[in-house]
Amino acid sequence: MKDYFAPLLAEGTYPIYNRGVNGDIIFHTQENYRYFLQKLAEYIGNYTDIYAYCLMRNHFHLLLKVKDKISS
Prior knowledge:
21% of the residues lie in helices and 33% in strands. By secondary structure, it is of the alpha+beta class. It has one domain. It has a three-stranded antiparallel beta sheet with strand order 1-3-2, with no helix packed on it.
C-alpha cells in the first residue's frame, strides 16, 4: 500500500493537485484566485519553489520543489 502521508523530501519535486468535493467550484471570483496565490506564497513560499501552477474553477495543479534550506 502506498504511504500517502510520507513527508516531502528536501530537493524533491512534486506535482500537487486538489479539487472541490464532487467537482464543486472552489474559485468563484477573480479575488478567490488572488487570495489562494497570496496564501500559497505566505504558507509555503519559504519552504518551496513554485515552478508552475494552474488554477481552474473546480481544481488546481501545482509543481513544487522543496527547498534544501528554509529562507527567512
